[in-house]
Design brief:
Layout: H1 5-13, H2 18-28, H3 38-45, H4 49-63, H5 71-83, E1 87-89, H6 90-98, H7 103-110, E2 117-119, E3 128-130, H8 133-153, E4 157-158, H9 159-174, H10 180-188, E5 193-195, E6 200-203, H11 213-225, E7 229-230, H12 231-240, H13 251-258, E8 264-268, E9 271-274, H14 284-294, H15 301-309, H16 316-323, E10 329-331, E11 337-339, H17 341-344
Antiparallel strand pairs: 1-3, 2-3, 4-6, 5-6, 7-9, 8-9, 10-11
Length: 345
């Protein structure tokens, strides 16, 4: 439904004094789009902020008499809030009702009805609007329950899946069936629960939700691709990815950051894998040393090669050249290799 919000607001302000009209328009940014403080307005009139507030209140008292003249717009606001379970995050509600242009007008109109309550921002919640106090209580309980679900499952969820796993809890808390739009609206008001650019919900501190810097973004790229990648590929994935916040990234930075982070293992020339995949850190010699040390018997050249290639993407000759390092490895009369006892100690 479309409304001429500027015209409706202008009708409310009609018959007020010029100064009262100007103060209210500036306080709500109805003409400029920028809301002004009591202090700023007071300075322009050379009056105190309290006098500005008094003039504003007097204007509001006269505006209230005109509420009945605009039944349709308030009924629409009422219907929208009802659709979202009587709760909607302020930023989302203003955008939904007023688009990009008329959010200040919508905000002004919402403040004129006593049955629309604005809940101020807190440590845990963004500012939001509600029709019923009971709905606020239910929404906060559902947010708390969902946070506990995230803490137990330890992974992000798409809305459909999260709604499915929380369905029983939602019914217990609200004593009625809630749909996904209402559930989503309740989650939106939480500062602890956030959504990433893949539209998956999780806790704000999770790197899957808010990756911090190149290393976290690289981790997510590798996790998503599920295989070792060259640092230039990782950089390109980050640059072109729709699931990561986009910032300028330099290819060399990726290499410099990953080589210092224990979550990543250099498994070839510029190739990185995740340590959690079972890769061990170190150079090829270290991998050979570990393989021989863990073996209960000497290993042939091919057996060593097979073990190393599970850990490193290198040429065969690189492995064989490292095996010739007698300071670390010895070959017995059968042509099989063991660790030099001196280094083993």
């Amino acid at each position: 439904m479309e409304f001429n919000y500027p015209k409706i607001c202008s009708n409310f302000l009609k018959n007020l004094s010029q100064r009262a009209t100007d103060i209210i328009e500036r306080r709500f940014g109805l003409n400029t789009g920028k809301r002004e403080t009591l202090e700023a307005i007071g300075e322009s009139y050379d009056i105190t902020r309290e006098r500005v507030r008094q003039i504003e209140r007097e204007g509001f008292s006269r505006i209230q008499l005109k509420i009945k003249e605009e039944k349709k717009v308030f009924q629409y606001f009422d219907d929208v809030l009802k659709f979202f379970g009587d709760i909607k995050k302020e930023e989302a509600l203003l955008r939904f009702l007023g688009g990009e242009t008329f959010q200040n007008h919508v905000f002004f109109l919402l403040t004129r009805r006593d049955d629309f309550e604005r809940i101020l921002e807190s440590q845990d919640f963004y500012p939001f609007w509600t029709r019923k106090k009971e709905s606020t209580r239910i929404a906060k309980k559902i947010v708390k329950s969902t946070i506990k679900k995230f803490e137990s499952k330890k992974r992000p969820f798409a809305l459909d899946e999260l709604f499915r796993v929380q369905k029983t809890n939602l019914l217990k808390i609200s004593n009625k069936k809630l749909n996904k739009d209402v559930f989503n609206s309740y989650l939106e008001i939480s500062k602890e629960i956030q959504k990433n650019s893949e539209d998956k919900f999780g806790l704000k501190d999770w790197l899957e939700i808010n990756p911090r810097g190149v290393k976290d973004k690289s981790y997510l790229v590798l996790k998503k691709e599920g295989q070792p990648l060259h640092f230039t590929q990782i950089a390109n994935f980050i640059k072109n990815s729709s699931f990561l916040p986009q910032k300028e990234i330099h290819t060399a930075t990726v290499h410099n950051e990953l080589i210092k982070d224990s979550r990543f293992v250099l498994v070839g020339r510029g190739l990185y894998a995740l340590k959690e995949w079972g890769y061990t850190s170190g150079i090829v010699r270290d991998v050979i040393f570990k393989a021989l040390k863990e073996s209960k018997k000497p290993l042939s050249k091919k057996e060593v090669l097979r073990k190393v290639l599970k850990q490193r993407l290198v040429k065969e000759n690189t492995v064989f050249l490292n095996l010739e390092n007698k300071e670390y490895f010895l070959k017995n009369f059968q042509g099989k290799y063991t660790v030099n006892p001196i280094k083993e100690a």
